[in-house]
Amino acid sequence: MNVVGSINMDVVVEVERAPAPGETVLGSDYRLHPGGKGANQAVAAARLGAPVAMIGCLGHDAYGDALYQTLRREQIALEHVRRVDTPSGAAFITVERGGQNRIVVAPGANAQLGPEQLPADLEAGGWLLLQLEVPRETVTAAARRVRAAGGRVVLNAAPAAPLPAVLAEAVDVLVVNETEAGALLGLPPPAHAEEALQVAARLRTPRSTVIVTLGAGGSVWSGPTGQGSVAALPVEVIDTTACGDAYVGALAWALSSGQPLTRAVELANANGALAATREGAQPSLPTFQELWRFASF
Ligand code: RIB
Q: What is the pTM (predicted TM-score) of this model?
């Protein structure tokens, strides 16, 4: 599986509550965790057993060195991770008591990932996993190439941004949370699962499946073969950072391993729930053994 996406260093502070506009609050000491939606999803899939290659950009800096080594330890192929003369991407994250997070991303090197960096053998990967933290033209070019060659494209449209029709038409599986789903249609987030199903049906193309994740409300999907939902698993939420990435990485792993959609969604749902019980982005992502024990599949 190829992942074209962002690689960030996350600077994380725990706070009792997030500051209001113009307010200063004191938090915990900060911690550094490897993150970035692209890298998180690559690591999530790799920890579950998928062969993964990452296509992305890092700066020539200490964060870049640390993030490169982290991905290498996960056995992710890094031939197409380019080092550039721009600071590595960083994300500034507050985590409130109860696990809710707020994230500001400084894209840095991620913004240098142009279509010309896509490998000549991108299509050979079969499955392509994308998010929206790198330039849209690169995401679109990658999706179109893989789709034209008969491969499968999974897009996590996060952070929320308008999807050009040419990109939407190249996608097999679109995954969005409730906020992103609403934003794509210019509407408020769906209030409950029934409304989310209607949104998913509106967002999909004739050949694509759309999955809307709803946090404590589980997730719903609508696709060419029908629609369905899965309830959230009850867990003690510590930190929701990268729960969505755990979900999407597991979904891509399961689908690329030949699992049917309903089963892939169940596995993704469990992987996201388990990630919520642990701190940080990549430190929270489960291994195959952990997922197996947790969900007793
Ligand atoms: O989805 C969580 C991720 O969003 C964080 O790791 C942060 O880097 C941002 O990309």
A: 0.96
